[in-house]
Structures are given as C-alpha cells and as structure tokens.
Amino acid sequence: MAKKQFKRILRILFIMVSIGSLYFVPWILVKAWILPLPDSVQEQVDEAIGYGFDGMIVYVDQGGKQPAFYTGGWKDRENKISADPKSLFKIASISKLYVAVAITRLAKDNHLSLEDTLADYFPELVARIENAERITLRSMVQHRSGIPNFTDNPKYWENEQENGKKALEFALDLPASFEPDEGYEYSNTNYLLLRQIIEKVMGYSHERYIKEEILVPLGLKNTFFSLKEVNLNDVMSGYYVGIDKDFKTNENGMLATAEDVGIFLRALNDGSVFKDGEQEIYSSLYEYEHGGLVPGYQSLAEYHEDIDTVVVQFINTTDFEGYEWNLSEIVINRIVKILRNKKNG
C-alpha cells in the first residue's frame, strides 16, 4: 500500500513539475515559429511588429529584379514617425565584413601578412594580452585568437558610452580564453585591434581606407562611421525593452541604409568587391554574411545562393536578456522561406 502511495505521489509531482516548466517556455518564439507562413514579406513584417518590435526595415535584392523594401512600425516611436526604408541604422558587427575585406586587400598588396603577430604591431601588449607573440592576424580575423571579448566584461557596461572610448582596457590583463587557433570565441577585441593595425600600416584612419577602397568604388554614399558625419534626423530611433529612452544619440560606430548594406553584401558574395586574387584570400578568412547588435539596434544581412537573394533586416528593439535576437532570426528565416516559395512556385 505504501508503495502505491509513493508511486502516486511521484506521479503527481511529475505532473506538477511538467506544468510548472511550461511557465519557462518562450511561447512567443514557439508562436513565431509555428504560425502558418504568410503569403508576402510585408505580411511577415506586419506579423513581426505584432510581437513587440518598435520598427523594422527589410531590404530584398533578388537577382534579376529591382530591390524591394518593406517596413513596419516606427522610425521614431515618440513622435509617431513611421519606419522609413531610407533611414540610417547602426549596423554594429556587420561592419566586421568591411574590416575583413580591408585586411584581405592589405594582405594581397603586401602591406601586411596574415601570419604577422599581434606583438609585431603592439609590442607593448605582450605583457597584457596573453600569447600576443603567437596570435596572428589570421586568427584575429577568424576569432580564433583567444583574446577576451571586451563586451563580455561586466564593467564595460557600467558606462558603455564612456568606456567605449577605452574599450581595449576591458580586455587587458585577463587570461586567454584558449591557446591561439585551439578554439573559437567571438571577440570584438579582435576587430578593435585589426582597425588599429590598418591605421598603423597605412598611416591614416581605417575609416578613410575603407571609404576609399570599398565604399567609393561601390557607390555607397549612405554608409558612415560615426554620428558626427550624419544628420541625426536621418537615423532610426533605437529602443531597449523596459527602458524609456531613445538610444539614437549613442555613438556605436558604423551606420548605413539597408540598401547600402545590401549592395555591399551582393558585391561581397558575387566577388565584385574584390580585386584580382583577393577573393581566394578572403574565402579562407571570413564569412559572407553577418549580424549586428548594440543597444537599440539589431541587424541581419544574409545571402542565399539557391535563390540568388540578399536579405537585410533591421529591427530597432533589443533586449540582451530576452528573446528579441532569437525572434529576429525566426523572422528572417520565415522571410527567406516566403521568397524561396515564390521563387520555386
């Protein structure tokens, strides 16, 4: 009898735990994933706005067709200004693609070697970044250096705008994440240092080099490196869940329109951004698509070879502790499925 009661209690406990665990299921992600696929990209954008995103811009470039733009929600929530496809947006880590192309060109032109080490350019960092004598530029481009990521340091976020001016300090004097080329860890510190190496090699700013070598040849007139270069009214507002603030005035690096990012991504993937011999180098180095995330702004830029299509998605709502990034990935995947169905239908 006692044995039966024990089993009954266990069964009740199991049911209670199972029901309780449902509380922690991210139902918004489940809903976004299982809902029937809309017929159009615009319907998918409208659906995404319903999940709580403030504003959204989607750029679609299908080979052989004119690029298309889709928007939803707000460019400026407070002033009730609708999302504008021509708005400038903080592209964050998508900028790494431009830096990787720049490093590729400098390597091809023998201004540097991918086998050069961090210590070759910054001997003063030998005592402050573990393995500096063995970390190559190649491993830095590929996030295989083991250099700690400064944005993973909690102290950095205590005053992100001020600390951004001395970001490297938040990666110094810390143990390496792993031995060079013995692992992978995405680290913004790698690209902070690579930008500085471009400047050491060329004797002028990395912004000037990227502009002259990449932006101007591609005709990208709506890509910038700082808020100081633009009219703030042209920038899409940025919001963080639970914070009543517009993050537009924060300085977070490169800004661009969705169209400019799309043109660059097309050129990266069809090879037209490269000079002779560069694409072979780049293909051994880095990625052909990327995402970006800073407070108030998340972006995804993808190329899908099977349908010869570039998709750029900008969303001006973030929550580093929530599901907004996962939700944005689900949304762009659904957009690609819609485009694929139309292409193959």
Outline the fold blueprint.
Layout: H1 2-21, H2 27-34, H3 41-49, E1 55-62, E2 68-76, E3 81-82, E4 89-90, H4 95-108, H5 118-121, H6 137-141, H7 160-163, H8 188-202, H9 206-218, E5 223-224, E6 239-240, E7 255-256, H10 258-270, H11 278-283, E8 290-294, E9 297-304, E10 309-315, E11 317-318, H12 324-344
Parallel strand pairs: 6-11
Antiparallel strand pairs: 1-2, 1-10, 2-3, 4-7, 5-7, 8-9, 9-10
Keywords:
single chain; 345 residues; alpha+beta; Beta-lactamase; 6-stranded antiparallel sheet; 12 helices; 11 strands; 14% strand; globular
Order of neighbouring strands in the sheet with most strands: 3-2-1-10-9-8
Helix content: 25-40%
CATH superfamily of the largest domain: DD-peptidase/beta-lactamase superfamily
CATH class of the largest domain: Alpha Beta
Number of domains as seen in the coordinates: 2
From the spread of the alpha carbons, the general shape counts as: globular
The unreliable regions are 13-23
Q: What is the β-strand count?
A: 11
Largest sheet geometry: 6 strands, antiparallel
The proportion of strand residues reads: 5-15%
CATH architecture of the largest domain: 3-Layer(aba) Sandwich
What structural class is derived from the secondary structure elements? Answer: alpha+beta
CATH topology of the largest domain: Beta-lactamase
Instruction: Report, as a whole number of angstroms, the end-to-end distance.
Output: 64 Å
Secondary-structure element order, N to C: HHHEEEEHHHHHHEEEHHEEEEH
Mean pLDDT equals 93
Radius of gyration: 23 Å
Number of distinct helices: 12
